[in-house]
Prior knowledge:
The complex is a heterodimer of chains A (272) and B (373). Chain A has one domain (35-261): Type I PLP-dependent aspartate aminotransferase-like (Major domain) (Aspartate Aminotransferase, domain 2). Helix content of chain A is 43%, strand content 15%. Chain A has helices at 18-26, 38-51, 62-73, 88-92, 96-99, 118-124, 154-166, 178-185, 189-192, 219-232, 240-253, 257-270, and strands at residues 55-59, 79-84, 104-108, 134-141, 170-175, 198-202, 213-217. In chain A, strands 1-7-6-5-4-2-3 form a seven-stranded mixed beta sheet, sandwiched between helices. The model of chain A has no long low-confidence stretch (mean pLDDT 96). Chain B has 373 residues and is an alpha/beta fold. Chain B has two domains: 7-13 and 259-359, Aspartate Aminotransferase, domain 1, CATH 3.90.1150.10; 17-256, Aspartate Aminotransferase, domain 2, CATH 3.40.640. Chain B has 14 helices and 13 strands. In chain B, the strands form three sheets. In chain B, strands 2-8-7-6-5-3-4 form a seven-stranded mixed beta sheet, sandwiched between helices. A four-stranded antiparallel beta sheet of chain B has the order 9-10-13-12. A two-stranded parallel sheet of chain B has the order 1-11. The radius of gyration of chain B is 21 Å and the shape is globular. Chains A and B meet through helix 1, helix 3, helix 10 and helix 11 of A and helix 1, helix 3, helix 10 and helix 11 of B. Chain A: Keywords: Pyridoxal phosphate. Chain A: Belongs to the threonine aldolase family.
Amino acid sequence: MASKVVDLRSDTVTKPSEAMRSAMAAADVDDDVLGSDPTAQRFEAEMAAIMGKEAAFFVPSGTMGNLISVLVHCDVRGSEAILGDNSHIHVYENGGISTIGGVHPRTVPNNPDGTMDIDKIVAAIRHPDLHYPTTRLICLENTHGNSGGKCLSVEYTDMVGEIAKSHGLKLHIDGARIFNASVALGVPVDRLVKAADSVSVCLSKGLGAPVGSVIVGSKAFIDKAKILRKTLGGGMRQVGVLCAAAHVAVRETVGKLADDHRKAKVLAGSVV
Amino acid sequence: MATNKVVDLRSDTVTKPSDAMRAAMAAAEVDDDVRSADPTARRFQEAMAAIMGKEAALFVPSGTMGNLVSVLAHCDVRGSEVILGDGSHIHLCENGGISTIGGVHPKTVRNNADGTMDIDRIVAAIRPPGGGLYYPTTRLICLENTHGNSGGKCLSVEYTDKVGEIAKSHGLKLHIDGARIFNASVALGVPVDRLVKAADSVSVCLSKGLGAPVGSVIVGSKAFIDKAKILRKTLGGGMRQVGVLCAAAHVAVRDTVGKLADDHRKAKALAEGLNKIEQFTVDSASVETNMVFMDIVDSRISSAKLCQVLGTHNVLANPRSPKSVRLVLHYQISDTDVQYAVTCFKKAVEELLKGSTEFEHLVDTTTKNSYGH
């Protein structure tokens, strides 16, 4: 008992289960850069179906998932993306959307519940002007990490989606912990992200896979995203070894998330 | 004989993980490497640094990221320029990322047939320090060893040292795209750490001829690797329990470097076998490592159609240009496979020259998979 470490720093510390390890060792693989790793293909098809989008693909990290998504939606020079001032993309991703992608961020204050006020989002949208970059994208984060893992409701998400659509913008959801949101809200995950053009979903956090995230979106979006992934250096060869573990994670751990929420409440209640 | 087996000569990237690698992946001791806590990654990186004779090493998901991180780390001031070969992988096959992603300007120098760039041309390409108003600032020279687009040619240690001296005397860094550096080391009979001694950084692929499923390693000074870590995270290459991949990569380095000489021997055998077919010509003397460039000298045969017909015989190859094919050997291609492949090339020629109508539907363009990996 004394030797066990109770690591509460993050859900990224989850180690691969026996089932994941076996799946990795037995994975049927091929060169995914040449487009032919069967395990990756199967996993990506399944994730697209689960998330209710046309296509999906595997990336080494959530940071790359968000970076690619922002860069694909904002692939014209002079773009701006609206996002929360306390969002993971803005605070913890090395400013990559700008330093690497040349995209300008326009932040809107995050409320304690993880949302941004709708009227403040609308006010942040640029109208055409000699002085302004062009707004192309709104990003939400669900669950919202810096607010304490708060869930954005499907009604709120749909409302932001309508704002985006009516202004000709795209909507990306940093859904690193989207399954936690889906479980806590009791909303199927595909319904929860219906309004989004793209979602980035982590497999390596609470779902427990050793590595990786998945981006989902339209086929046209994913086709563009594939090239960016290669450009950034995320094109991996026999990546089925990682997708095999990720597939086990989605299959076996989503059902355990409700328990994590219960344990979090217990922990919170016992701290006086 | 080799009926259902596919003989895949498209690249050495197609190598699949061995049983030893799979077992190592399943048993790997892991932790969160973004917090630098994965013991298997740490052990592997330390081993690679020692093997390459550098202070530190960093595992990355791909050679593209290895080169991108290296160029961006050396050229982290806006307005930088890098000198590299006009036939180099970084310049041709990495999506122009050093510019589109990194804001670094390339200055190309012609690659000779042996993979080198003339020393005087490299020196001429270095921007004069006083010309700041019009010029970017040269900060880096990149070499590639073995040189892919020249057919896997080796850069000698003498040449590498000379370019290193040029770099040093002009205050520049030297990066080696050493995706296949172990092939060069084995072919030249030069220990790999001696071969790259002049370089400030090297990117080494584990997923090509060495056979690991994923990844490359960058090696360099501790200060360089510290910068590289942040760049890797920024690009999205920070992986969590990455020891699962490092375990396989470690097995690859341990088990497969010793097999590379055999790949070179098989490449020569393939070259000689193909050279006997009158419709083809191969310069066997120019086969230094595991690559063979084969030219088609019959005007009736295109590389695209040839590769498509070969595919029907379960031999996979990619066109390099409308009249040439690139073939790459690796340890998962046996001597028997090599003989089978030569037989299939002969058959394919016969079938194509028969002028059979069943091939009329084949479109005479280079396939979308022609590339230079």
